[in-house]
Fold:
Amino acid sequence: MSQPPFLHVAVAVPLSTTFDYRAPPDAPLPPVGSRVRVPFGRRQETGIVLRHSANSDLAPERLKASSTALDGAALLEADDLWLLRFTSDYYHHPIGEVMAAALPAMLRRGKPLRGDSERLAPIAGKGVDIDALARRAPKQAELYALLEERGALAVDEIAQRLPHWRRYASALADKGLVRFETTAAVDAADTPAVRPGPVLNADQAAAVAAVEKSGGFGTFVLDGVTGSGKTEVYLKLIESTLARGRQVLVLVPEIGLTPQLVSRFEARLGFRPAALHSSLADGERLRAWRRAHGGKAAILVGTRSAVFTPMPNLGLVIVDEEHDHSFKQQEGLRYSARDLAIVRAKRRDVPVVLGSATPTLEVLKHCDDGSYERLALPKRAGGAEPPVLRLIDQNRYASRDGVSGPLLDALDKHLGDGGQALLFLNRRGFAPTLICTSCGYVAECHRCDARMTVHAANGELRCHHCGARRPIESECPRCTGNLKPLGEGTERLEQLLTSAYPERRIVRIDSDSVQAKGALADALELAASGEADILVGTQMLSKGHHFRRLTLVGVINADQGLFGSDFRSDERLAQSIVQVAGRAGREERRGEVLIQTSYPEHPFWQRLFDAGYAGVAADALAERRATGWPPYAHIGLVRASAHRRHDALACLAFARRYVEGIGGLEVFGPIDAPMARRAGRHRAQLLLRSGDRRALHGALGNLRPALEGAKVSRRARWSIDVDPVQLF
Structure:
């Protein structure tokens, strides 16, 4: 009798290796790409079978048997496994943790791919007076009307349309109007019923033709000014892809962009695309993943991790707002979803479209090199004019809680003309600093090298780095003097505007105001419908949104990025200004953008106003070429943190000794991180730079296992970040 094969299994542990197990006894051999339960130390873990082998480096008697096969068929096919192995190799991250990051939480916990499906159904013959119900309980009426129109609906579809739906469903069930049903999960295929859209202009039509002409892989950069109709180009490409029976993957940088895009796709294509993002419940994420995996979801719209979702009939990949740094994961597996989308499209021989009004310098360099094809949309769709940009010199005009007189005058004018206004400040809270007016004491975090932010509405000081909170002191702890909030945050702006415009509806959108489930979607709906007169927000408002009434944008503190220490500072500031300015005047009325600055003579402003984002990008590329920074070099960042500063530096000193002397590689550090202490841990970093990508990856590929085995690294937490977007 032949020896049963061994299983090479990826387990979600921080070690760059797979683990060998014997096949489960008295059971069919688990296929490659399926999940198995395996003993690991004193616990049971869910792993992925990567391959079968008749041999193992360990003696057979030392190998444990896997406990259970969780899948009768492969969960991940060959192309899916290839992408995950590539991710592990390129980002130098343990394969088991990469595999885990690619699966929904319920699959990681060993739950079945298919289970029972819950639906909500209306009970026939009740004769409900919808109008009367709407007067008493409008949300219940909205849910019941949806069920009357559509019949029984899966709970995940209801959740996408109506946040907090269960409380309304429970009330309707108590009234005997609806009932919950449980059925075996069956995923119906999306059936497109395409509705005609607007006629494309010449630039849009040329962009569509270029992508469709490729017939296979190609990277296309849809470089369109804000309001130029990039989404219409996406829709035309999606229509032709669906007509061929293929699937489409659409990546967006943030959850806030998902509902708007999904609704627009549904209105045009006649079905609701599957969505994957972190605000969904685990069951909802699994159902969306399963539909894409089974080929039933024609379109998957998702944030970062959706790039790993299996799609057997993939025919097109779209990355919207490709410049957004949210596509780069900053913790754990530090991957770029944009870059992996390109890799995946190449592997599957399908086109990938990168859309942005402010493409990253890396992407622009690829266009210059000819490896990417640039498709320009230089004009706003529908004849809308670009907004007028003006600087407000804060040295000349007095301000009230950060808002200058000219900006307040502009608010009066635009609101009086029936317009909508947006005040942009990328700083949440009431004020960034609490200072003593007598001795200069500043309230600082006890665990971080950072100031505490004032959150006046809650009477708290909060650290935005470690999450620490404490009550606002009533007097200075050093001299008992008066404490004063210094600077402005979105909460302070909201307070000022509420006082100045009591009759207007003001909506604040930042990560503090939209924490509750459904709050972001509700706030964006108020903005998009025009019910909100003034919007106050952070970068969450600066990208991708279409607000029809919006005619005025005020940038409150534009100087935050003028003197940044990161080599990307100019690029990021220009992207931020251009993106938020692009929200203004997207329809009939021309928009106005007022930018408050204390440095109106700074050359950055002159270049941005004279040559736009393209001019700033050209200057930045020339500077990067001269100084040898990306995209003209390749970098990796090794970080370490420990309770003792010495331990973090010692870990990185070991890393430096290990890579020092490698040809073509420059090593900088180790040094303290710009914020040297965070959450009670001391932080340090080591930077590797090379003009040769292979030299960098060769060094990092050898360094990771060396660090895993070194005693000095056990006293620190360390990580490797390839192509980091944040150095400081």
